[in-house]
Amino acid sequence: MKALATVFVMSMMAFQPQNIPDTEVQIAGALQAAPEGLREGATVYGYDSEGNIALLRQGDGIMVCLADNPHVAGFTSSAFHKDLYPFMARGHELRLEGKSGKEVFAIREAEAKSGELKMPEKGATLYVVSGQEGAYDPNDKVVKNVRLRFVVYVPWATAATTGLPTKPEVPGGPWLMNPGTHRAHIMITPPADQQ
To answer: How far apart are CA 11 and CA 51, in angstroms?
Structure first.
């Protein structure tokens, strides 16, 4: 499996190097996605001057954080449990090869079933923090007026094994997406007025 820094490379055709925040600013923004108690020791990836994803900080904790893409409108940073690393890295690797979303799903499904792609055994969480342009103030290194999304990957889980519905039933309530597959995950998206 290629290193995350290699597989998260952006398309150079779409990249125009400009306004890449410095390393400290990127790290601080990326860490906003991780729970406060798990930020120390998190590994952080961000963008270099070439537009490639680069390791900004090697950590020894359980979280991997990804800084906001400065060439996409708005602000989005994410953090995921290190056990999701193979899944995330493989997806980006396949997208770089030009695979469609359906192809990525099918390939990872087959690889997870065969054991070639290691998936979390007991579930692992992805956190996503997003906001409008300017939501992140690089001076105080805080993201304001954000939306949160929590995604708990539980490979092969079903409604029968979790007791969760397979579609949203109440605003912000948990539900199971892609049940019965390697990509089964619990979606929790609190309504905007509760964040």
So the answer is: 8
| Domain range for 128 | 4-194
Q: How many domains does the chain have?
A: 1
Distances (CA, A) of 20 to 3, 30, 148, 163: 22, 14, 24, 45
Q: Are the C-beta atoms of residues 46 and 27 closer than 8 Å to each other?
A: yes
12: Cβ contacts below 8 Å, ≥ 6 apart: 50, 51
Name the burial class of residue 61, with classes exposed (0-12), middle (13-18) and buried (19+) by CB atoms within 10 angstroms of its CB.
Answer: middle
Cβ neighbors of 25 (< 8 A, separation 6 or more) are 138, 141
Show the tokens assigned to 12: 């150079």
Are 125 and 81 in contact, with CB atoms under 8 Å apart?
A: yes
Write out the E strands in 63-154: 63-66, 75-81, 124-131, 136-137, 142-143, 147-153
The DSSP H or E segment spanning 53 is: strand 53-57
Percentage with pLDDT > 70 across the chain? 89
pLDDT at 93 over 60: yes
Q: Is the pTM of this model over 0.90?
A: no
The CA R_g of the chain, rounded to the nearest whole Å, is 17
- Does residue 145 contact residue 134 with C-beta atoms inside 8 Å? no
Higher-scoring residue by pLDDT: 120, 131? 120
